[in-house]
Specification:
2,3-Dihydroxybiphenyl 1,2-Dioxygenase, domain 1; 8 strands; 4-stranded mixed β-sheet; alpha/beta; about 35% strand; Signal recognition particle alu RNA binding heterodimer, srp9/1; 2 domains; 2 helices
Length: about 120
């Protein structure tokens, strides 16, 4: 092993607007708040952090499933009930892509990054 994961940084136009979406989605809290950089951490584990970094140039959200503007990243979020979790993320501001499979569904966060709700096969 060379090292350990410390921070996953997500580019976005407004870190303070996007961070609360992921804080609620993942049960994390804001631990650092700056207009250009916001960090989230879990109460149980201070690392790794999930950070949101302001893009100074014109932000272009990824296009999914197309690749004219690549995904840049995506996060898989494990859930117990896909239907219940879907209602919760939509209420937070996610957008449904319509790409649904038996064990996962793809959504876009409020800044346009794709993420998946996943449920392992029983």
């Amino acid at each position: 092993m060379i090292g350990t994961l410390d921070v996953l940084a997500i580019d976005c136009p407004d870190p303070r607007a996007l961070a609360p979406f992921y804080a609620e989605l993942l049960g994390m809290q804001v631990v650092s708040d700056d207009p250009d950089w916001v960090e989230l951490a879990s109460e149980e584990r201070p690392r790794p952090l999930l950070a949101f970094q302001r893009v100074d140039q014109e932000y272009r959200p990824p296009q999914w499933p197309g690749q004219q503007v690549p995904q840049q990243l995506h996060i898989d979020v494990k859930v117990d009930d896909l239907d219940a979790a879907e209602q919760q993320v939509l209420a937070l501001g996610a957008t449904k892509t319509g790409y649904d499979k038996e064990t996962f569904r793809v959504y876009l966060d409020p800044a346009g990054h794709p993420f998946c709700l996943i449920k392992p096969n029983d």
